[in-house]
Each structure stands twice: as structure tokens, then as C-alpha cells.
Amino acid sequence: MTGLDGELRTTQELLKRYAAGEREFEQVRLSGADLHNTILHGIDLSEAILNQANLSRADLRGADLSWVDLSGADLRGADLRGAILTRADLSGANLSHANLLRADLSLANLEEANLSEAILPDGTIQGMITPLEEEDSEDTSSTVLRLYYNPVSWNARRVWIALLEKGISFELVRLNLDGDQRSPQFLEVNPFGQVPVLVDGEFRVLESLAILDYVEAIAPYPPLLPREPKALATVRMIEMLTVNELLPRLMPLMRHEFGETRLDSSALMGVHESLDEVLRVFEETLQGRPYFGGIALSMADIVAGTVIPWLPRLGHLLPKFPQLQGWCDLLHQRQTWTQTEPTEGELAAAESHLRQLLAAT
Ligand SMILES: N[C@@H](CCC(=O)N[C@@H](CS)C(=O)NCC(=O)O)C(=O)O
User: Ligand 1 centre from 276 Cα, in Å?
Assistant: First the structure.
């Protein structure tokens, strides 16, 4: 790979060859390379020179990084589960929020490395007192996360957006919700016959909010849950208000719009007023900040942001809530929102199933 004629000179070349299936890149010299967010699962970079490289959020699961020079490298949020880092030079590297579960760090130089909130090889988190339960630290290094979803499901879209925001690899398994959610195969995955479900190796999580917690724990970078107490409580509050107040109040409007249970004008007005009650709290909570948790996107924006922008389509307009309106506009500038937005075709295809599901609730 690094012989005279095959010498690798650029990051692009490495990525190209990796994409073509090559894995042997031992002794490459790519000081200061920009490899952030890349998928380099199982790569052999032993004895490579990668000092000062940017490998933040890179997927380096199971990589051979023995004797590598990663001094001063940016490895924030990198997924290093099961990686071999024997005698690696990690001096001055930033490994905060990295996942080093079951990584081999024997004789690695960690002088002045930043390991804050990194998941260490034994499953403990640097800077936290409670070790992870043994069963939580199951090695999933050889598995890809699998998300069962439907494109018009708000609950599933929350998880989909969170996974994309984290930049981790996953695969999507689509359910049509036309009865396939009650097939024996899917009922084995979720006995309640609902999406989303996240499967990580042998481990399965139901319930979108629980899944979001799991995603945050396995991929802590970039954080989608603030640590500051008031911001954290606000984020949780918005998540719970969306699920426990906003969505139930929205259901009659959904049934009305989809023609199952038409409401007369006074009942309709009552629904709009009760929705406004919740939205007023959301509007006040933003307090001039771009997102519910402050300046950075959080799980609150993801949970509320898969519902509120749909309200105008259901006849509930937002102009009296200028902050929420601005927040919706901001969300729609994110690729993770546009990428996961159901198409008109998907919406039309889902309409009759949606009607049946609404009638059953
Ligand atoms: N509380 C669950 C709700 C899941 C849910 O209601 N999923 C809907 C789609 S949004 C579903 O799969 N419905 C199919 C059915 O009930 O048959 C969560 O948050 O994950």
C-alpha cells in the first residue's frame, strides 16, 4: 500500500481506496489530515503518522491503530470501540466523548490527552463515578444499528434525525404500517407492532424517547442533551410536553382533517385554543434563544420539531408565535430535517393506513 508506486498522498485517496474495499493503510503519513466524520471501520492504520489529524466523530470501530502517531489529534466523539491502540501515541490528543469500549490501550501514551466523558475500555465514563452495568457494555463493535421506521411516523423521525445529527452509521428498515407491523416477524422485534424500534446487535430498544437516550449514551458527540441543570430540565420538559400535552390535543384535529371524525366549528375552535395553550408555553420557553436548550440543537428540538412544523398543514397556523415560527425556519435549514421530510408521494401513500390507525386510537 505504501510502497514506492502505491504511495498514498492525500486524504481523498485514502477515502477512495477505503470505499473500494481496501483496508491496509499501515505506515501512511497523513499528518494534520481532515478525516472528521469519516467511516473507517476496521481499517489498518498501524504505524501511521496522523499527528494533529482531525478524526472527530470518525467511525474507527475495530481499527488497528497500533504504534500510530495520533499526538495532538482531534478524536472528539470518535467511535473507537474494539480498536487496537497498543503503543499508540495519543499524547495531547482530544478524546473527549470518544467511545473506547473494549479498545486495547496497552502501553499507549496518553500524556496530556483529554478523556473527558470518554467511554473507557471497561465501560466506565471518564469523569463519572458510576460504572456502566456489565450488560450495558456489551461489545457491539461489529454491528450496525438498525432503525425500523416509517417515513410518515413522527415518533420514528425523531430517532432518524438524532442518528443523522450524531453522524453515526445505521441502516433503515422500512415498515409500511399497512398491516406489516403485525406480521409475526415484526412482532418478534416489537410485540406492540409499532415503530420506531432500534436494534443494536442483540440489544433492542422500544419507545422513541428511550431510544433517544440510548443514542445519546452510545454516541455522546455532539451532545444533544445539555448538562447544565436548567437547560437539561427544559429539554426534558419540552420532550414530555410534546408527548403528553401537544400530541393528545392534536389527535382530534388529525381525525377531523383526515375525515374520520368531523368537528363542528365550536369544537374545532376548542381544539385550536387547547393547542395554543401548549404552544404559548413553548413560545415563552424559547426566550429569544434559537433552540430550546440554548444555542445548540437538542433532543427537545428534535422531538417538538417533528410535530410543530406540521401544524399549519393541519390548519393550525403559527403567526401568533413568532419565536416558534423562527425556530421552525431554523430547523428547516438543517439537512437532517430536509432529508427526513416525508415526500408528498409518501404522505399520499400513507393516507389510508393513517386513517385506519387514527380510527383505532
Ligand atoms: N410511544 C411510542 C409510540 C409509537 C407509535 O405510536 N408508533 C406508530 C407510528 S408513529 C405506529 O407504529 N403505529 C402502528 C400501529 O399502532 O399499528 C414511541 O414513542 O415510540
Answer: 25
